[in-house]
Write a sequence for this structure.
């Protein structure tokens, strides 16, 4: 994934935002005022990656189980600090969480 100035969108102006990684596929992207969140699969398992737009290092939301499914709820608030996502696995029924992008705290909303 790259970015470029609006005035000079040609390839020579491109700058990597997320560099190419073999075996990695970006499956979804959400943009907030201070973060962008991507749902990606790396050699099959899904991951939620939080990228602060301030330039801080990106981080992944960690899960205990090895195999699971994730979904991201599309919010309508651009200025929010909350991300809502769903999680399920073969042994865990679907759960809905709110994740605070600033504090990295996760709150179970629905089980």
């Amino acid at each position: 994934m790259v970015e470029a100035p609006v005035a000079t969108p040609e390839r020579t102006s491109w700058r990597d935002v997320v560099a190419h990684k073999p075996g990695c596929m970006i499956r979804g992207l959400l943009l907030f005022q201070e973060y962008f969140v991507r749902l990606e699969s790396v050699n099959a398992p899904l991951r939620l990656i939080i990228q602060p737009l301030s330039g801080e290092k990106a981080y992944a939301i960690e899960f205990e189980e090895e195999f699971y499914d994730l979904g991201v709820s599309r919010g309508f608030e651009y200025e929010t600090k909350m991300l809502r996502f769903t999680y399920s696995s073969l042994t865990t029924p679907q759960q809905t969480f709110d994740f605070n992008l600033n504090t990295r705290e996760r709150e179970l909303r629905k089980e």
